[in-house]
Design goal:
Chain lengths: 181, 525
């Protein structure tokens, strides 16, 4: 009688504890996390009238060049109502590569020949990132080859111009004349 | 009568006890070293069986010790296992949940820039990733569903490799939720949360990151398994220790018990001088004291009884001796009177003669009682001895004798004559003719049977037949027998170290069986 009780007790204990990690149901562990990050806002240069205008967008953690990405996003409803627009065509992406103060902006379009206003938008937005002194554009160069004969001196001059243009280093100060007020 | 013969072997004291006979037989047959080895082995086996008696004190005490140790060890192990497991799991749960919550809170901005949700999602995936986690994040549209739909749940389950229940997905919309899940024999910690500001819910078009993380608990499982193994090994050692201690403790308890048992056995075998040293102050010492007092009393009483017995026997011997001298002359005078006189005188002569015979037998018996009887050994041809006995009593014609003529046994011829005469005389007087005597060599001696064809001995009288003054026909108290013949025969057989037994034969008559061993040369001295 007594050993049977004892065995039963041990069995109950064993059943209560079990071995290894037991599964559970869903258990609450506090509220949903409240977002606390309030990184520095980034500056984005849009066009208002025929002038460059600076607007501020919320920033993200560890994303210093978020402004360039924001430039590719259409202006918000609120901004549109205030008359802001962008000259950047849809579908263009801008990637930023930093090398000690010189920011290379890679564009996914060939032979970029943008109006000065649009160039100002990109350069000023990129130059607004902390620690950036100069901005350079980088894009593929496409050359049309004539049907007959090789490349003439005209064509090579054109290519040289393109390379020269791409090597140009810009600063936002160069576009000061386009700035509003 | 078809009843099987019931035999009774009379226990013969002193030289004739069966154990001694067996020992003597063994000594003759078995060589000495072998006999010693056998004795040793028997001693070992006796000790061994005593140590491991199945329900003996030692076994029971050891079992109780071990059971207590086992229960205590298992209980302690179980409790510590539960506590350690809870601590281990709570630690990992708390660490993971706090870290994930902090990461999410750090990376999800209070206001997300337009079109920045995918960037946040990528950042969260990169920030939450470790080798033990699988992370799945989706941007939940702003409208508020009661629970995530099945497609989202299945995608999440596939993303983290752990099934996600409806309950879990429902609760994670309003709080941080975790759940331990077992998948394919391994445990995982599933954590889910939605990162959003309460006021953000109202903002139009705002998406909120929904975060699922599964953490593999394989390391914790390994740790627990190691802990379990360590606990079991410790339990094993505890039980072993308990067993050792139990054996040590029982040794202390069992030694006095063994001593007491040995002493009680000695007392039972008649050694009334047995005493045990009284040591200690426990219950067993009380028992020892009681035993010693009992032994004292027994020794005292038995001594008294023996003294009285000896005195009464001496009295009988003295009386017999005193009676013999006047009786001798009375017998002679009665014979003379009977030759001349009438029936009355003849009757007196016959009774006087019987009285004389009785006194002779009493004297003989008292010699045995006094231990004064001695053997006078000789090489005896049994056939001749039996023939001479029958001849001297004039029974030659009435008794059939059967046996080898050349059987020679070394014994006391006078005592053999007394035994045979008593047995045959008894058969002739109380049994019925024909009476037969048969003898043959048996176990280094002679076995002699005396058989009659009478009615046999009543069952209730069989055990008493060798007692003094016992007669088969109690009514005929004045029969010729003295009632001492069989006693004397038994004493004589015992003096030889032999045995005398009685049984009723299958045909109804009494069968007396005598076995006398041939004496050793050394016994002659």
């Amino acid at each position: 009688m007594r050993p049977r009780c004892l065995l039963a007790g041990l069995g109950v204990l064993l059943a209560l504890t079990g071995c290894g990690v037991r599964p559970t149901g869903p258990v609450g562990a506090g509220d949903i996390p409240r977002p606390t990050a309030q990184p520095n806002p980034v500056a984005v240069y849009l066009v208002r009238g025929d002038r460059l205008a600076r607007v501020s967008r919320p920033g993200l953690l560890n994303q210093p060049y978020l402004g360039l990405q924001q430039l590719t996003v259409a202006p918000t409803d609120a901004e549109r109502q205030l008359g802001y627009r962008t000259l950047l065509p849809g579908g263009v992406t801008l990637m930023a590569y930093d090398s000690s103060g010189l920011l290379t902006v890679r564009v996914n379009r060939a032979n970029v020949r943008w109006p000065r206003l649009l160039l100002g938008q990109v350069v000023c937005t990129a130059n607004a990132a902390p620690g950036i002194k100069q901005v350079r554009l980088d894009y593929p160069i496409a050359v049309r080859v004539r049907e007959k004969g090789g490349t003439g001196p005209e064509d090579s001059r054109k290519v040289d111009d393109l390379f020269k243009e791409m090597a140009t280093r810009y600063k936002c100060d160069e576009f000061a004349d386009l700035m509003a007020n | 009568m078809t009843r099987p013969p019931r035999s009774l072997k009379a226990r013969i004291p002193k030289a004739g006890s069966p154990r001694r006979l067996a020992a003597r037989a063994a000594r003759r047959v078995v060589p000495r070293p072998v006999a010693r080895a056998v004795r040793l082995l028997r001693g070992y086996s006796a000790r061994y069986t005593m140590r491991l008696r199945p329900m003996g004190l030692r076994t029971r005490l050891a079992a109780a010790f071990v059971a207590v140790a086992l229960v205590a060890a298992l209980l302690a192990s179980g409790i510590s296992y539960v506590l350690v497991r809870r601590a281990l799991l709570e630690r990992v749960q708390d660490t993971e949940i706090i870290e994930i919550r902090q990461t999410v809170a750090r990376y999800v901005p209070v206001t997300t820039p337009p079109g920045g949700e995918e960037l946040v999602r990528q950042q969260l995936l990169a920030a939450l990733y470790t080798s033990e986690r699988r992370v799945w994040v989706m941007n939940l549209p702003a409208y508020q569903p009661a629970a995530l739909d099945d497609r989202v749940r299945n995608a999440a389950a596939a993303g983290v490799g752990v099934p996600v229940s409806v309950m879990f997905s429902y609760r994670m919309l309003s709080e941080t939720v975790f759940q331990r899940v077992r998948v394919r024999g391994h445990a995982y910690l599933l954590i889910g949360m939605l990162a959003a500001q309460p006021e953000q819910r109202e903002q139009e078009g705002q998406k909120r990151p929904l975060v699922f993380v599964s953490v593999s608990l394989r390391r914790e499982e390994t740790e627990l398994a190691q802990f379990t193994r360590a606990l079991l090994i410790a339990d094993g050692f505890a039980v072993l220790l308990a067993l050792t201690m139990a054996l040590a403790a029982t040794r202390g308890v069992l030694r006095p018990v063994r001593v007491l048992g040995r002493a009680a056995r000695a007392l039972g075998e008649g050694d009334f001088s047995t005493r045990i040293g009284e040591r200690g102050r426990d219950e067993l010492t009380d028992l020892v004291r009681t035993f010693n007092r009992t032994a004292d009393q027994l020794e005292h009483m038995v001594g008294e009884l023996r003294a009285k017995d000896a005195a009464s026997r001496r009295f009988v011997a003295d009386v017999s001796h005193e009676l013999r001298t006047p009786l001798t002359s009375m017998v002679a005078m009665a014979e003379i009177l009977a030759e001349e006189g009438d029936d009355a005188a003849r009757l007196v002569a016959v009774e006087t003669r019987r009285l004389g015979a009785l006194v002779e037998r009493l004297i003989e018996i008292s010699r045995f009682d006094a231990g004064a009887a001695a053997l006078v050994l000789d090489d005896v041809v049994v056939a001749h001895a039996v023939e001479a006995t029958l001849d001297a009593r004039g029974w030659t014609g009435e008794v059939a004798v059967d046996g080898p003529a050349d059987l020679i046994v070394r014994l006391d011829p006078r005592r053999l004559d007394v035994i045979v005469a008593n047995l045959v005389g008894n058969a002739l007087r109380h049994g019925g003719p024909p009476v037969s005597v048969a003898f043959r060599p048996e176990q280094d001696g002679v076995e002699l049977t005396v058989t009659d064809a009478g009615p046999g001995i009543p069952e209730d009288l069989l055990p008493l037949v060798f007692n003094r003054f016992v007669k088969a026909e109690a009514a005929r108290s004045r029969s010729e027998g003295s009632g001492l013949g069989l006693s004397i025969a038994l004493e004589n057989a015992g003096l030889h170290g032999g045995m005398l037994a009685v049984a009723n034969g299958p045909d109804g008559g009494a069968v007396f069986t005598l076995w006398l061993p041939s004496a050793d040369e050394e016994d002659e001295a």
